[in-house]
Structure formats: C-alpha cells, structure tokens
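Hi V.,

Quick status before I head out on leave. The structure for the redesign project is tokenized and pasted below; the design run finished overnight.
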C-alpha cells in the first residue's frame, strides 16, 4: 500500500540496496522469457513435480500425489489450528530409515543423504512455501512482463527438528527511489522450523518458528524470527489449488524484502527511500497480486540434488556455487549467492 505524503527524493543511500555490492546489473544476457513459469491465472502455481533432482515421488499439487508404486498413494495436507502454527501432514515418515523399514512401495529415497525422506522434503516445500502477495505498485506485476520468480528450497534436519529454508528468487530487484539500487537477480528468503507432532503420524509436523528476511545483513536489516505466540501473527490464506491453508508473505514493492504482515512492512520506516510499501491496496482484484512460483529442492551442500537453476527459470545461476545470483539475466554485481540463503540458519 502506498502511504500518503510519500516524498520522492533521490539521495545517495547505499543502504537502499539489500545487497552489499549494490547497484549493478546492466548486461542483461537475454533470456528473460522464462516467464512460462508465470501462469496465466491470477496466481502462479506449480506442482511438486517440478521439485528437481530428488527423483522420488514429489508431492503433487493436490491432496494426493505421486505413487511410489505398489499402490502407495502419497497424501499431503495442511491445516491450521489455534496452537498456533500451520500443520503439515504427510503419510510418509520424515526419517528415511523409518520409511524404508515400512517399505511396500513407499518412495523412501534419500539422495541428498541428510536422513530425511526426499519425497517428504518435496511435500514440505510444495505445501509450506509461501504465497507472495505484492504491493499494487510492484513492477513485476504491472510492467515487467518478462519477470521470473522461482523458489529454491532446502529441507534439512536440525536435531529432532526440521529446517526449511527457501530462497525466494526474482529475475530483478527494481530498486527504490525510482530505480536507484536496482540490479539483476534478487535473492530473498524465508525459513521455517518444524516440530514433530507427538502421537500423530510419522510425517506430521507443526510450524514452531518462522523467519522472514528483509535487507538481511545490511544496516537496514528488518529480518525477524516469529516464535511462541508471535507465530499467530503469520498470515494464512486458502490456496485455491488445494483448498487448504497456505502461508502468505508480503514482499516490499520492487525491492522484495519479505515481511510477515503489511503492518510490519509499512511500519519499519517513514524515511523516504528507507520506507517500504506492501500489499495490494485499492485494486479491483487483489488475487492478481499473488504469486506461488515453481520450486526446486536443492538438496544438501555435500550432496546436491540440483545445482543448475535453469529448471526454475534462472539459466546461468547455481544453487550451491560461490557466485552472485543474477536471476537468469547474467551480469555482474547482482544479488547475494543462493547458497547464502540456504545454509545459515536464522533459528
Ligand atoms: Ca533427504
Ligand atoms: Ca535435504
Ligand atoms: Ca531485494
């Protein structure tokens, strides 16, 4: 939403960029038309089958998904309860060894060797990655018809908990203050800490903590962990593809810092060029501002499932290399490495 009295001035504000190496991004190397990942409908959707590399039955976009053979049907659901925290239920054990012991056609591969069933990882990414609900002035909705969005996920054990870290990738950061500090590639991220549910299925978890990153690692860092009763602040909405609840986050207009609520986004600053606008205010059809990009499961650093990100719309970019993320557009001085969005734990 645009706040009244917003002043348009262009100052030399290095802090406007959410990446330390700032504003580059000329040399666009063509591509862009990866916008096939944008759906024609109001919200981008994808099925879990895009989850690359893992091979084993990815979670389907619907309530049931790939069969591991022998009649096994993967069942994946989400639900909200007042505890608070979104619940994910998968009829496949988290632990690959436990899955394998059950056998009978279940997809129990653990190709990234982290001990978690890869099909469970894919189900978690499929159902827990958030809808991105954009501001009414967002360039990727309104003007950049070649814009590409894609999620690169990692699901990994953290003791008995499970961490889900997702790079929310964009082909471009459009900058603030009229384009100042824009660059090719925009690597943002969110995270979830999942807790197993006692006396429930071996694949059932609850969101214990959530993390939204905004200008992470800069002087203007507004990243935040939501834990305890703050988990109730998270926004959920009905996913039209499944009819079940899904997490919703609010990327700031054109810069894409990720916020859990519109109020948090718009409350961080009233200083021009440091302020942020979120949420589709006063638009006839707010659903046109929702996106749910395709995703890939990157696996683990020691045993990647995916390196090349062409499949998620970003040719030339890599999930694990020590290399700027350029959103499939090439160039220099782009955005922070994808690996830096998948490895450090915010919890
Ligand atoms: Ca695994
Ligand atoms: Ca993993
Ligand atoms: Ca950004």
């Amino acid at each position: 939403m645009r706040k009244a009295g917003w002043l348009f001035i262009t100052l030399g504000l290095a802090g406007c960029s959410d990446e330390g190496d700032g504003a580059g991004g000329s040399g666009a190397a063509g591509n862009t038309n990866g916008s096939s990942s944008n759906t024609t409908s109001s919200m981008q959707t994808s099925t879990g089958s895009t989850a690359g590399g893992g091979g084993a039955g990815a979670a389907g976009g619907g309530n049931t998904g790939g069969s591991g053979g022998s009649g096994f049907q993967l069942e994946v659901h989400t639900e909200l309860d007042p505890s608070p925290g979104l619940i994910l239920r998968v009829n496949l054990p988290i632990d690959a060894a436990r899955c394998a012991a059950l056998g009978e056609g279940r997809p129990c591969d653990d190709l990234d060797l982290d001990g978690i069933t890869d099909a469970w990882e894919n189900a978690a990414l499929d159902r827990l990655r958030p809808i991105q609900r954009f501001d009414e002035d967002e360039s990727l909705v309104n003007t950049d018809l070649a814009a590409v969005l894609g999620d690169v996920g990692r699901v990994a054990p953290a003791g008995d908990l499970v961490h889900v870290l997702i790079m929310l990738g964009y082909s471009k950061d459009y900058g603030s203050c009229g384009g100042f500090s824009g660059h090719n590639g925009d690597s943002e991220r969110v995270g979830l800490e999942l807790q197993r549910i006692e006396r429930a299925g071996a694949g059932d978890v609850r969101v214990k903590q959530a993390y939204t990153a905004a200008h992470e690692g800069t002087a203007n860092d507004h990243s935040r962990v939501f834990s305890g009763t703050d988990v109730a602040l998270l926004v959920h909405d009905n996913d039209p593809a499944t009819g079940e609840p899904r997490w919703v986050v609010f990327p700031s207009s054109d810069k894409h810092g990720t916020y859990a609520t519109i109020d948090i986004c718009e409350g961080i600053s009233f200083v021009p060029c440091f302020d942020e606008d979120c949420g589709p205010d006063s638009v006839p059809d707010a659903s046109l501002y929702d996106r749910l990009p395709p995703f890939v499961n990157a696996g683990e650093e020691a045993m990647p499932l995916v390196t090349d990100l062409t499949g998620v719309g970003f040719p030339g970019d890599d999930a694990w290399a020590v290399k700027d993320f350029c959103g499939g557009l090439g160039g220099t001085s782009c955005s922070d490495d994808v690996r830096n969005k998948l490895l450090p734990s915010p919890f």
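Above is the designed sequence. The pocket of calcium ion (ligand 3) is lined by residues 18, 173, 186, 188, 255-256 (CB under 6 Å).

G. will cover questions while I'm gone.

Best,
W.
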